[in-house]
Each structure stands twice: as C-alpha cells, then as structure tokens.
Specification:
The structure holds two protein chains of two kinds. Chain A is mostly helical. Chain A contains two helices and no strands. Chain A is elongated. In chain B, helix 22 packs parallel to helix 28. Classes of the chains: A mainly alpha, B alpha+beta.
Chain lengths: ~70, ~950
Amino acid sequence: MGFWGTTFAFCVLEGACAVYINATGIRGANHLKHLLSVTAVTCMWMMWAIIYMAQMYPLVQPVRNKGE
Amino acid sequence: MAIEMDLFRSEEMELVQLIIPAEAAHDTVQTLGSVGLVAFRDLNKDKSAFQKTYANQVKRCDEMLRKLRFFTEHMNKAGITIRKEIGDGSGGGYGGRFNSNEEETDGYGRENNNNNRVISIDELEHTLDVLSEEVSQLSANTEKLRRSHGELVELQLVLEKAGGFFEEARSDANRHQDEEDSLRMMRRENARQDEESLLSSSFRSEIDDEGLGNGGSPSRMTRRTGSFIDQNHPDHDVERNDASMGGVAASARLGFITGTINTEKVHAFERVLFRATRGNVFLKLANIDGHVEEPTTGEKTFKTVYVVFFAGERARNKIVKICEGFNANRYPFPEDFTRQRQMNAECSGRLVELRSTLEASIRHRDRTLSKVAKDLWFWFTLVRREKATYHAMNMFSIDVTRKCLVAEGWCPTSAKSRVSEAVVIANRNSSASVGTIFASISHKGQTPPTYYRTTKWTNVFQQIVEAYGVARYREVNPTVMTIVTFPFLFAVMFGDFGHGIIMLAFAIYMVLKERQISEKPMGEIFSMVFHARYCILVMAAFSVYTGVLYNECFSVPMKIFGASKYVCDPIDPTKDTTCDSQYTTGLVSRDDSAYPFGVDPVWHGTRSELPFLNSLKMKMSILLGVTQMMVGIFMSLLNQLKDGDWLSVYCEFIPQVVFLGGLFGYLSFLIVLKWITPGCTADLYHVMIYMFLAPGNVDCMGEGPGGSAGCPENKMFPGQGGLQLLILFGCFVAVPVMLFPKPIILKRRHEQKNRGGTYVRLDENDGDGMQQLNSSEELRSLGGNSSNNNNSSGDDHGHGDGEFDFGDVLVHQMIHTIEFVLGAISNTASYLRLWALSLAHAQLSAVFWDRCLMAAVESGSIVAIVIGFGVWLGATLGVLLGMESLSAFLHALRLHWVEYQNKFYKGDGIKFTPLEFTSLTGMPEEAS
C-alpha cells in the first residue's frame, strides 16, 4: 500500500462518511456532521501517518532479549 | 458568514418587549414557559422581594410546596411510593394537559389548551389545606395510638419478666426453707423485718441467704449480679438494720422500680446506679428476645427489663432521676401476685383492642396518603410551574393603572415567530379585551445571552466546554472541534485495543439502554458517567483505533496487518539457524517501506522498544500539539473576521502564526523531514538551540577539525541557514508587533472619534431612533449597566463610548503578548503529557499482563492460573479502565481548556436561562 495508498484509503473513508451523512441527514443542515467527520478522519490519518513515517527509516533497530 | 453551522456560534438573540394586559399576563407567561425560549429580564432589580407585585402569590406557592413536601415526608415514612408518571390512564382528567406539554415542548412545542385545566391553583390550595390538616391529624392519632401500644407491650413484658423474678425467687425460697430452718433461728432479728418490708417474704429470704453468705445455692439471678451484692453486703446489712430500727417508717423506705431500658445502655445504667446509691441497690435484669418498639420514637431496639430494689425515699428519687436520664421507661408493678395476674390479663385485653384500632388507623392514614400519592407528582409540577410563573411576573414592570404589564426578555431570533404566535394564542385564550403587543427592541449596549441548541450527542461536550466558561455571545464555540479532538486526545493516551473494546461495550450498553437506566435511581458517580455516555462512546471508539495503531491488545501485539517487516540481518552467518545478531546488533528492515498500519509488532519486548517508542510518542505529541494550537489560533481569526476587527488580525493573529509557526511549526517540519530522509541523523535539539545561538550557521562551520563543519549531519536541506535566519527575524519582529501597535492605534482612533464626536452624535442616534423611542426609558435606566460591561472587558473597544484608558489597554496587551510568547513554549511542552500518559498506560498494562497472567500461566497450576487471571482482571478493570481512564480524561480536559482554548476563547458570556417548564416537572430533587 505504502504511504500514499493508505492516505488514499483515508480519503475514501472520508468520502464514504460524507456520502452517508448526506444520505441520512437533512439537506442543508449537515455542516456540523461534515466538519466532525472531516476532523475525525484527519486526526486518524495524522496519527497513522506519524507512526508510519517514524518507521520508514528507523535509526534504532529492534534488539531481542536473550532470554526469549 | 454564509453558512450557518449549528453550534459553531451561539444563536442570534433579540430583545423583545411584551405589553400584556393584566388579565392575560398569567396565561401568557405560562404559555411562554411551555415554549421555553424566552428569558425574562428583571425590570424590578431595585425592589426587594417583598415589594414585588406578586410576592404574595409566590409566598402562597411556597406554602403549598411546603405542604407537598410534608406529604412526601409522611409517604416516605409510611413506605408509599410516589408515582412518577402522570396521565397514563388513571392519573385523572387533567393528566393530559401537562403530558401533551412535555411531548410538544421537546422542539419549541407550544401549549395552547389552557382551558382544559381541570384543577385550578386556588382549588388545589384548598385541597392541600384540607388534606394536610387531615394527614397531620391522622398522623398525630396514629402516633398516639402507637405510643400507647408500645407502652402496653412493654408493660406486659415487664409484668412477665419481673413476675418471673419474683416467681423464681419464691420457689427457690421454698426449696431452701427446710434446709435452713436452723439457720433461720439464728437470725431472728432479720426475720422480724421481713414482715414489715414491701417485698414478698420468699424473696426477702433469698436476699438474706445471699447476704449472710451461708453457702446455700444462690439463684441464677443473684449470681448475675452477685459481685454487686457480695461486695457490699456489709453496707446492705447496715441499711437493713437501720430499716429494722425504723420500724413502721422503714416500710416506706424499701421499695423497687421496674421498667425497660435499652440493652446497650445497661452497663452504664448499672454503674451509675451503683455509684449514685453507694451500692445500696439491688438490680435485676432480664433481656427481652427480639426487637421491641420504643414507645416515644417508634424505633425498634433491643431492650432489657430491669427491677431495681432500693431502700429509702432519697434513693428512690435518685433512681427515678437516673432512669429518666437513661430514657428508661418505668412501669408500675403490683406486688401482689393476684393483682399482677389481673393486670396482665387486662393488659392483653387492651392490647388486642389497641392493635386493631391501630391497624385501622394506619390503614386509614395510608389510604389517604396513597390517594395523595397518586396526584402528588402532578401537584408538584403544577405548583412549581405556578411559582415560576409568578416569579417571572415579578420581573415585569407594572403600569400605574395596573391595566397592563411590560415585560422584556431575550429570545432566539429563530424562535421569534413561534414565541409571538404563542403570545397571540395565550391572549385569545385568556379572553382579554386588549391584545398583547409583541415587538423586538434594540439591545444596544447590552450583552445578549449565549444560547446553543444542543442534541443529546453534543450536549455533554458543550457542558465540558461550559464548565470552563460560557462563550461570549456569537464567538466561535470550541465545542465543535472538541467533539472530535477531546476523545481523540484521550485515546492517544488510552490507546489499547482490548481496553477500548471493553469501554466501547460499556458505552454502547449505556446508550442502548439509556431509557431503562435513566429511570432507575443511580449513585452520584454512576450518574456522572451515565451523563457522559456519548462522550465515552466516542472516546472508546478512538481508543480502539489508537490501540490498533499502537498494536496493543492488553499490551500484547496483534498481527492484523501481517508479519513484522524486520528480518534477521542478511550478513549474519547464522541467519538461517539461530540468528545471533538479533541479540547484538538487532534485526533489520526487509525493505524501505514501513509496517503498513501502526507500530511493527516486532518491537514488543525488545531491548530497544522503549527508546524507539519514546522517541516516536514524544514527537507525535509535539506534532499533534502544534497542530491543535494552530487550529486554536485560526479560530481566533474567525472571531476577528466576524467582528471586522482587522487591527487584531494584523497585530495579533498574523504575528501569533509567525511566532508559533516559526518556532514549533519549524520544529514539526524538521521532525517530519528527519523521518522521511533516509539515514538522517540530525540532532534536532542541536538544530533548534543553535538556531538562536549561532544564527545562520547550521552545520557548525569552523568547529570541526581544520575549520571544517563540526556537525554536517545537521544540515538537512539546502537553504536551511537562510530559512532559519528568516524565521529568527520573523519571531523577533512578531513580539513587538503583538505588543505596541494595537494600543497606539486604538488610542488614535478614540481621539479621532472624540474630536468629531460633537458633530456626529445626532446622526448616530438617528439610525435606530425609532426603535429607541420605544424603550428610551429603559435604555436610560440601563445606561449605567452597559457602560460597566464595556469597561470590564479590556479589549472590547467596539463601542468606544466609555472612557479610554491607554495604560489599561497597554497593560492588557502586554499580558496577552507575554502569555502567548511564554505559552507557545510551555504549552508545547505541556502536550508531552500525551506521551507520558500513553507510556504509563502501555507499561502498566504490560506489567499486569506479564506479572499476573503470564506468570500464573507459566507456573502451570490451575489454581494459580485462576487466581492470576482474577488479579489481572481486577487490575485491568480497576486500575487501567477505572483510574487510568479518569486520568487520561482529566489530561485531555486540561489540554482543551488551557492549551487549546486560551488561543481564542474568551468564555465570559452569560448563559441563556429561559423560563421553561419541562425541567419543572415532578418533585424537586431535594424533596425526593
């Protein structure tokens, strides 16, 4: 998937949320819901992206404990 | 703003004026109370509570409420439950009225069937009078009956038990009679007294036996108090000898008192009696099995029957007093055995009689009370609403002729038509001769209240924000972002898949069963949790997500997204067998891409786990924090744009963005850049510190050997030195820009305005002159208040009517600037709590898992596993899901209140508190 692939998946998720909100909500009164879904998806994407990027070129390597 | 989003800004409010004919006033207020969207302003602030027009009616309502509470008390005592629902068929004809109300008022509902009211408040007052009289009389009667019943029961017990003493003593004495004939001869003197004493001879002989200590088998009772008697028998004897010398007079001095006493007090009673009479008493006790009702209080207690023998009138008085002091009831006890019998029989007879009377009386009282209980809920509702109505009417100013009332109140613009419609209907229903005038008036110089329409989802978040402060009228509402960011930041700290799932299940349960749960009584703590159920639901959902990202389920890594990316180092010769290098240099990544979703499971339990996770979480905290603070600053831009306050945009918003962006925005940029650059080993601390210490010299040029670069790895991109210089310059310029221009420009503006003031004043007033005419009187009276409002908020310069204090404004701006500059650093550091809490959570759950569950499993014994599992479950639920979630909640709360909201939120508004009836349903909390 890579970075952009998953990012695209998040965009799709947001799109799906938007479609769902428009389909179920009252027309013209969904701004709050849209904003909330955008914020939520952005937060989720951001945290994923941070963790993903941190692992792209790690400077520390996993060293196992001998006992295991 | 073209798009109006719910909740983003508070509802627009209008000040409306109502001129209501006096006869329609009551109905109008009641109707508006049902609509629940008008907050009346108090126009009689200067009057004391007694001077107000409807003070009397309010007092009457208070009196009625008192009576209703009186009924509630009696019902609680009688154990009658008060029906909460009204109008469900049997509630009476009037039930429909309020019930329909509640359904309608959910969404601006109005109520227009005033005429359906079956019971009027006056009728109710009369009914309550009669009923409370009746109930108090019935209660008094019942109380009296119960008391005499209790006394009779006790008397009977006394007769039985004390009679038992005497009986036992008699038989005992008879048995001894033969054996002790010879001894009897020796104490003839004593025998002489026997005939004179009040005691029955048999009993006396027993005392004698004991007193002389002649070795005859003592009775059971005397053994109990044996030490008492033995120890003091010389005294006792002297007394008795005295008595004997007294002759006939002595007969009056030796007597006994019988009664009952609380078992708990027996020892103290015994001791006090002994001391008070210097041991010249003889106490006999017999426990009563089971509870006995205390006649005076009606409490069920354990009691003991006592008989005190004493000699002398003085001792008697003392003992009576002691009995009173110990709340020991005294009962008459005839000496004569036949009289005892007779009395006992009489007692039983009366008891049977009394019992049936008492039962009938209680039944009657309960019948009356349960009749009241059926309506009590509705009556409470009615009276409380009535009181609120008169309370509101007390705020109206009354016209001299007393023909009409003038009311003013705030009402959301969106609900104005609904309110005016309700007013018209109320006027028509009250068949007033004149119509009610409803008009909006200018609210210049007054702060409108803040009102948000919330749903059950958003309400809890709005409350979280309002716990900090109510938003200023029409300012950006932090709640909108908080709905997502609050649970999200919580989840960053609480991230664990397993814990999240448990929490989610709990929250879903509460949400699905909210109807059933809310009907049951709940404790204070649970009710708090229950109110936050939607917040908890979102928090738990995000926790599940962050748990997946952290790859932890009860601290155990999950392999949802495939196996680890790390393999044995290909250059290791033992890579196909034991792979020794994994214990020394570590595993290496298979390819350049990272684990697709979340933290690679390989890290769990490795030696380098903590260094890796700490670095990751610390940087993540800073990135999230800087983002959220930036959002906060942009929120302040929205406020400034709405007010058209371009001065603040240039002198606050832009320098703030430059400063925070320059320092920590740049740091965030470097963090990301370091991550995505292969093999970058730049020391970010060094870069940031030397950005200030050696501007422009990124790679420590001249510090290395031979004047070369000392830290070439710190140069991360071309042009870095120049950019850093620019940033440094920007930050240094931003501070004075925040500090000085704004107060100076404000001062200049104020002076200009005042210079031209004398000429433009007329025009200014002309604009809304028509409206002002309506309430010119009002505005004059409010002039004082409004100017105070303006001065109290330092940067509220828009009105500019009051005095302009340059020093004040400058100091305020200075504080604002210093707060921001220092805050930018300390707030960013404050976001590191995300890392700290998340680390603590992960470590705690790992410890519980390894030390409790895994240690038990390794031991192999079933018992150990069961115990280990129990301990682990207890720790997980109690420590992690209970306390850890609370601490994560509090830290998320702090990050929102302090770090986020101080960027834009004024929070000095007035909450909109309309007169509304739905909250005035049923019993008030303190009465139930």
